[in-house]
Amino acid sequence: MPQVTYIEPDGRVRTLEVDAGSSVMRAAVDAGIDGIEAQCGGNCACATCHCYVQDPWLDKLPPPSDDEALMLSNVAAERRPNSRLSCQLVVEPALDGLTVELPDRQS
């Protein structure tokens, strides 16, 4: 099972085993990870699951869809080149070790 590491807003680091096919957001919400609101439930409609994908993982992900790119323009925290919506990041075995940092605010 792939592992995803979350760096919470307070700096705590938590690593979870995530089912392949699950989103980075869904795994975080189910585990009570601090820093993801996910108000829309993972429908790419609210930008409250914003995260920063750490190197070298950004280049291993598909590029943001047009919908995700549009929603990223509405994030509450600083938008960075490595900003993504965690609801759009689907975990697969090749992403074992993926690390994401959560911003200090989502709304």
Explain what you see.
With 107 residues, the protein is of the alpha+beta class. It has one domain: Roll (Ubiquitin-like (UB roll)). 14% of the residues lie in helices and 20% in strands. It contains two helices and five strands, in the order E-E-H-E-H-E-E. The chain has a five-stranded mixed β-sheet. A hairpin with a 5-residue loop joins strand 1 and strand 2. The longest helix has 8 residues. It starts with a strand and ends in a 6-residue tail after the last strand. The mean pLDDT is 97.
Q: How far apart lie the N and C ends?
A: 32 Å
CATH-assigned homologous superfamily: Beta-grasp domain
Q: Residue share in helices? A: 10-25%
Radius of gyration: 12 Å
Provide the residue-averaged pLDDT: 97
- Helical segment tally? 2
Query: Low-confidence parts lasting 5 or more residues at pLDDT below 50?
Result: none
> Total strand count, please?
5
Give the structural class.
alpha+beta
